[in-house]
Amino acid sequence: MTDVFLNSIYVGTVKNRDDFIEKVVTERRMNRLPGMLNIENDDVRDRVYIELDHGRVVRPLIVVREGKSTLTDKHVEQLERNEISFSDLVKQGVVEYLDAAEEENALVAFADEDITPEHTHLELAPFAVLGLNAAMVPFGHHCHGVRLSQGSKNQKQAVGYYAANYQVRMDMDVNLLHYPQLPLVSTMMYDVSEYEKHPHGQNLIVAVMTYKGYNMEDAIVINKSSVDRGLGRSTYFRPLAAEELRYSGGLVDEIGVPDKEVKGYRSERDYRNLETDGIIFPEAKIGEADVIIGKTSPPRFLSSADEYNLTTSSSRESSIALQHGESGVVDFVMLTENSEGNKLVQVRLREQRIPEIGDKFISRHAQKGVISLLVPDADMPFTASGIKPDLLFGPHGMPSRMTISHLMELLGGKVAALSGRIVDATSFQSEKEDDLRKELLKLGFREDGTETMYNGITGDQYTTKIYIGNMFYMRLKHMVRNRVHSRATGPIQLLTRQPTEGRAKEGGLRLGEMEKDTFVAHGASALLKERFDADRTTIAVCEDSGLMSFMDSRKNEFHRFGASETSPVSPVEMSYAFKLLLDEIRSLGLNPRLKLERKC
Question: pLDDT (tens digit, 9 = 90+) per residue, 265-277?
């Protein structure tokens, strides 16, 4: 007898395990059981697992019977004429969905010619084994497996055209590419996924060469004139919101321009963009500390006497304003209600983002690069025919990463641009490299993709041939504008007297021993002093008792604890955080004493 489990719960036993499994699979293919039901035969533990839980990853496969695929030419013709749909194939038992568990008992053929009598299923297409994003990597079968995986992940971070209705959406932290394009070197997955509805990259002319050492490691050099013409240009959107919250006792927030009597009132300049209803107007240009939505809130704590004597002065200012380093243009203002019926105001800001030094670009083969230099058009190297590359890619990223597909896309992109057609680079069934080379030769170029190039500054011919072609590049959402952060001196925390935390609060930058060593090497003593002496304080300590003493300002003398009035008192420099620790230890009923020694 074999135990049977449904969704990991024991439900009974069966006598003939193989007959039971065959009957369940047959019933599923005849559409009498749910299509998402999967069954696993566990020989080791002599168990049968049936799974119907949500959240499992399932994938479609063509059913193979007696060494033949059940998908016939007639099915394909009907699909092309739209007489049947994919769901009809599932209902007919031609295609079924398998999860990871049931696939353990299946033998899946890669292509039609691979089918043997032992095979149970056939892949829909060879590239389908990769998944949606990885199948978008051109010439993926010429690429290292890890790079293929990274290439699929990086495409998800690309700036593109993410939704057609972006104008009426309030999405957090989104980017919109201004001039997205379809790739010249494409795969079948681009057609299947209807990529033209959500493109996310641009076709650039890329040369594989160094430029004065500026593209060492993973850095890239970009033509400044290409950026001026719109390369990688995007808009960054960010929403801000405020609502009139209700508090106990019938108190509510009020959205409007705060009165001058309100506690925490800012300067009049901060409220200059607000209209009479306390909300900013569209297309207003705003900067750091500017108020976007004016709001006043009731006081946080009310004494029993104040409850019946509320005046305007008891309210506090709680407006929504831009934080340190932020700026933009008001793109969209929306007034609505939340689920509780409270007034809700949402404001969307936009900011044009032009590629700058520090921004991240990537090819589809996980060859990432950060802009290290924007070169004027006149200084860029050029080919004999006068073509200037948009991007210079360092050659040292190729040998260790073994992304041959990256080089093949350059070759294929060149053929596509010159012949005016899309080159098919679908994994496992792409156009052959030899065919691309022959076509490039017929078009009047060297078949290996290299060209003679000249130094843009001196005009001298380079002694070596440069590999140059067209490639699809993407700009990632990791922009230096969102990350850059510096500070000399600034606000400190009230409790610890140490610098505040975080970029938005103009916070300090944490520094370790290694960072300290680099500053010492550069002679940055003033910076080190600010960094390590941020919360320096001087405390008077009684030499006899070892306890902290306090200055009595009226008598102009020290007040000592547990010692005579004549005991000597010495000033001791320490971190304020250490002084705070001593205070907290004392609050526990312990009495820490400091043993003082002379410095010399």
Answer: 999 999 999 999 9
CA distances from 515 to 89, 483, 530, 533 (A): 63, 19, 14, 16
- Chain-centre distance of CA 456, in angstroms? 36
Could you please report the per-residue DSSP string of 228-248? HTTTT-EEEEEEEEEE--B-T
| Each residue's pLDDT tens digit, 351-365 | 999 999 999 999 999
Angle at 157 between CA 126 and CA 210, to 5 degrees: 90
Which tens digits make up the pLDDT trace of 369-406?
Answer: 999 999 999 999 999 999 999 999 999 999 999 999 99
Q: Which residues are within 8 A (CB) of 214 and not within 5 positions of it... i.e. 6 or more apart?
A: 221, 372, 373
Report DSSP state, residue 102: H
Backbone angles phi, psi at 207, to 5 degrees: -115, 135
Ranges of residues in the chain with a pLDDT under 70 are: 301-313, 531, 562-563, 600
Q: At what angle do helices 404-419 and 433-442 cross, to 10 degrees?
A: 40
| Three-state helix/strand/coil letters over 178-195 | CCCCCCCEECHHHHHCCH
From 3, 88, 218, 331, active-site residue: 218
Cα separation, 458 vs 461, whole angstroms:
9
Contacts of residue 271, defined as CB under 8 A and 6 or more positions apart, other chains included, come to 257, 258, 291, 294, 319
Q: How far apart are CA 499 and CA 508, in angstroms?
A: 5
Domains located in the chain, CATH noted: 2-124 (no CATH), 149-167+175-233+357-475 (2.40.270.10), 235-353 (2.40.50.150), 485-532 (no CATH), 536-587 (3.90.1800.10)
Active site annotation includes 53: no
Both tokens assigned to 445: 């170029």
Residue whose structure tokens are 């990529």: 195
